[in-house]
Structure formats: C-alpha cells, structure tokens
Task: inverse folding
C-alpha cells in the first residue's frame, strides 16, 4: 500500500471516529451509513442483516435506500444477497443495462425506478461468517474505483465490529440478570427479530398447508407478497393471522 492509500485510509478512519464518538447504541449504524455515503459520494447507504435466506433490513440513510433494501429482501434477489452468500464484494455499476440486468432481471429494473442506478454491496465479515452487507447506492451508473473500494471495505469492517458488539451487548442485557422492567434498554434488534420470526412462522404454515419444502414455501410467500405490492413481513403477518391462506392448488 502506497503513502497515498495510507493517507486516504487514515483520513477515513478519522472521519469515522469523529462521526460515531458521541453516537449511542441505537444510532451507531445509522451514523456509519451517513459517513459512508459522505466519504464515498454516494446517494444513499444502508445495512442489511443476513438470516436463513430472509435478509433483514436494518438501517438506511433515507427512504430510497430503505426501499432498495426491502426490495431485495422481498424478491430474494440482488447484489446484497449475493455478497452475503459469498462473503465477497458484489459491485453492480449499471443496473439499467448490460450484465447487471441479466444477473438480476427482476431487481435491477425495479431498483432503477426508485432512482438507484448503481449498487455496491460489501459483506460484513467473510464467508462463512458474513452477518450482512453494507450497501452503497448511486443515482447514476458508475464504476467503483479501487481507492473507493478500499475505503468502503474499511467502513464495512467498522460496521461489522459495531454490529457484532451491539448484538453481544443486547444478549448480555437479557442473560437473566435484568430486563426492560428494571430500566435496562430493550434489545435493539428486537422488532426486527419479531418480524423475521413472523416470516418463519408463515413459511412453516405454508409448508404444512401445501406439503412443500421450506425453500419453495419461502418462494411462494415472496411471490404472493410481490403480486400484491406488499413487503414480505406484511404478507407474513396476514398469513399468520389467518387473514389470508394458501390453498393446495394455489399457483405462484
């Protein structure tokens, strides 16, 4: 690594330290997304948590980034899911044409309608210990330079440490020595975990109803949600609450 690269990374580390120094546990990841977007001249940024084929949107800099996260989670398709499954960066510099559209034929055109033309997904950790992705978006097609990729990987490393540390803190807070009633904070992933559990429940109900495997049940739930313009957790809640049901002869 040359002196210029070392200066760039030192500058990025200083910026990260300044941004998160006074951040509380609840907004740590949001601050890191903000500084990632600023340092790398991105339109927006987000963090997506991996989980049993059903990624969990965690935090985003704005509504557009949140919609792109939800879109990938609902479709089961996109650069972030590929990065999480391989543990390597997945760079999609042009979602409007060429190889990126061929690779993600459903996600790519929908992402561009949201104003995202390029998406760079950085794994948080490495295979087989990847816990999610840092997703960086631009509103114009653009390659990610080698310098920016190094900076993005540095930020992803900091996000990984923050994510795993905060998760451990929550587990400690609920190890039988206390809970919300004694003034200690509730798990910061609690609501997300509940939504994830609801999807698992819905998948289990579809499996039992249609006598199919888990992968197919998840695919059917995703198709069901997509066809109705709903998110995966929204569709799952209706299934679990028996407001909707899958019949054995129901096609995708």
Result:
């Amino acid at each position: 690594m040359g002196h210029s690269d070392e200066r760039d990374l030192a500058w990025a580390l200083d910026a990260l330290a300044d941004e998160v120094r006074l951040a509380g546990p609840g907004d740590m990841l949001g601050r890191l997304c903000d500084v990632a977007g600023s340092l790398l001249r991105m339109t927006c940024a987000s963090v997506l948590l991996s989980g049993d084929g059903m990624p969990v949107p965690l935090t985003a800099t704005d509504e557009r980034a949140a919609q792109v996260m939800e879109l990938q989670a609902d479709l089961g398709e996109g650069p972030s899911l590929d990065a999480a499954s391989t543990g390597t960066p997945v760079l999609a510099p042009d979602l409007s044409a060429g190889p990126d559209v061929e690779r993600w034929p459903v996600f790519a055109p929908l992402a561009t309608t949201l104003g995202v033309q390029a998406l760079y997904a950085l794994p948080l950790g490495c295979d087989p210990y990847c816990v999610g992705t840092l997703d960086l978006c631009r509103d114009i097609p653009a390659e990610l330079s080698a310098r920016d990729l190094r900076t993005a990987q540095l930020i992803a490393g900091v996000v990984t440490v923050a994510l795993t540390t905060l998760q451990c803190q929550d587990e400690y807070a609920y190890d039988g020595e206390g809970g919300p009633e004694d003034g200690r904070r509730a798990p910061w992933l609690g609501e997300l975990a509940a939504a994830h559990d609801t999807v698992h429940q819905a998948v289990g109900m579809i499996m039992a109803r249609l006598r199919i495997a888990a992968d197919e049940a998840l695919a059917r739930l995703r198709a069901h949600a997509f066809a109705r313009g709903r998110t995966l957790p929204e569709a799952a809640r209706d299934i679990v609450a028996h407001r909707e049901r899958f019949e054995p002869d129901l096609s995708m």
